[in-house]
Amino acid sequence: MQARMAHPTDESFKQMVSGKTLDNCSIVASDVTNAQTIFGPNRPGLKGKTVRQRPERIEPEYLGIPRDFYRLHHFVTLTADVMFVNGLAFFTTLGRDIRFGTAEHVPSRTAKQLAKSLMKIVKLYALGGFAVRTVIMDG
Fold this sequence. Notes:
With 139 residues, the protein is an alpha+beta fold.
């Protein structure tokens, strides 16, 4: 019944039922309270009336690279390509041997935009102490 009336709040619905403003309604206020206890809050009614809660901030974790791993993979061969998801272009890279992949949305596929995205990735590897040996564009 509450759904047919465009999901009023439980308090408003109790007032309507107890005030006899609804014709041919066999529901009483205690029925509304019991339904809320059994089934929980009126979800469709809450969806339109609640405000989005701000999510908690996530602090990034930085991990050190083990020396053995760094010695084995100091030079990284980087492969790159443009991938499409639902018509949106993403610049994707994969570091061979270490299997580190990245993806970045690119608004256009111009040489300038792709070079800018590639330099971001090369700088990211440089932060970790790696040197990019070769860049291969898959066709």
